[in-house]
Amino acid sequence: MTSTTPLGTDGYPAGWRRPVFIGGTGRSGTWALGRLLGTAPGWRTIRTELRFHADPRGIAGYLRGEVPEAKLLHDLAERWYRRTGGGGRPKGLQIVAEEPAYLTAVEAFGARLADGQAPAEAVADLLLDVLAPHLTDGGVQRWAETTPNNVAAAGALAAAFPAARFVHAVRDGRDVAASVASMTWGPDTLDEALTWWEKRLRRADAGYTACPYDARVVVRLEELVLLDRDAQLARLAAFLEATDDEGAAWEQYFTHNMTKDALHVARWRGQLDRRAARRFDRAYRRAYRRLERDGVTSLPLDPDTVDTLASS
Questions:
Q1: Which whole-number Å values give the CA distances from 120 to 38, 71, 156, in the listed order?
Q2: In this structure, are residues 167 and 22 in contact, taking their beta carbons and an 8 Å threshold?
Q3: Does 1 have pLDDT greater than 70?
């Protein structure tokens, strides 16, 4: 491998063991933040959701002791590589790794475990081996990944990558529900999608609080884009210990691409008549109060604030 960055003992750039895992409920701005980070020199945002590392049926479940080693090894070889998205298009690991190289990485992972390597360390080596061809092109020093389950799996992933940083992308639940209901997967109605959002926010918040305090940050999308742009972008850059060049690249992209129009704030109102909108808004506010009462720490901005921002 040719690289101008410091190499670790594994032969990979040292920064590769400082990934940024961006997650949330899904449809909450994870990819928007991923695109932002990927514009900085030396950064690469993985261009597809890897999923296998953060899924409770995959590596995250294995590190929590919920998935047996034999099942994980079987699923890595037989299940996780070939996934398809809408219209049968390739999605996931097959986008970032050729199958022979991927299977070689899986075999090496099994051999490390058999030789007694700690599971968390072996998992980190597996991810770097799988991603190496994707990251080597272009002299990548840091990488980010946007699987929504990243935050729910933060405790397990922090064991594998102690220097990782976790960004919890949070967005008004009404707009999340509207976005989910418009997709070809998931719930079809706004009410069902709101229940989906509440369940996943609880799960994400539990994972968020399970990882080290200084390794995590909540980014509330409306706060970042509409309420306090400069300060919130600076806060994110400071959390990620960005260089001046990285911060300048993010600021340029942010200024031109992460705007009120791009955010589609309050899009849910356009999907309902006035009476249905009032009913859905009441349901959301009840869900918000439940989450608040139950001590969920990574709540979106309160709905009144979001409504004010949408109308300004």
A1: 26, 17, 8
A2: yes
A3: no
Tokens 């953060």 label which residue? 54
* CA–CA distance, 51 with 225 (Å, rounded to integer): 27
SS3 46: coil
Give 191-222 pLDDT, tens digit per residue.
999 999 999 999 999 999 999 999 999 999 99
* Secondary structure element (H or E) that encloses residue 137, with its range: none
For 199, other C-beta atoms within 10 Å of its C-beta total 11
Strand partners, 182: none
Q: What is the DSSP letter of 231?
A: H
Give the pair of three-digit tokens for residue 84.
Answer: 């398809």
Tell me how far apart the alpha carbons of residues 166 and 162 are, in angstroms, rounded to a whole number: 11
**pTM of the full predicted structure?**
0.95
Q: Is the pLDDT of residue 113 over 80?
A: yes
**Class for the domain spanning 16-311:** alpha beta
Q: What is the DSSP letter of 218?
A: E
Domain limits, the chain: 16-311
Q: Token match 């991603």: residue?
A: 131
